[in-house]
Design brief:
The chain has 130 residues and is an all-beta fold. The protein has strands at 3-7, 10-13, 18-25, 33-39, 46-52, 58-60, 68-73, 78-83, 92-99, 119-120, 124-129.
Length: 130
Amino acid sequence: EVQLVESGGGLVQAGGSLRLSCAVSGFTLDDYAVAWFRQAPGKEREGVSSITSADTNTYYSDSVKGRFTISADSAKDTVYLEMNNLKPEDTAVYYCALSRSILGLEVKSYANPLYQHRFWGQGTQVTVSS
């Protein structure tokens, strides 16, 4: 059974940092596409970042570019989202999602909210106070 467990969320002041982890079990990170999504109350789900094993390219939405960094540790089967210079508008529940990567598909495609990822984590709350 594949499981994704997010951790690292919490309450932080504006300008602060958090590192989210997405620990994967039952799925070896040797051929993968992982994306981080977030959803704030009353808002649609937003894809913020994605990464694939194929070429290690990464994607960031304009709202987080330059502040967030996605990375993967295949030895630990864990994907991270380092979040710096956090803003109140970053407040949301953050989810990681996992699928097998598809040859030729752009990395940004996996961060599209319409992409049908096979596996999802339960989410971790990030709250940024002003």
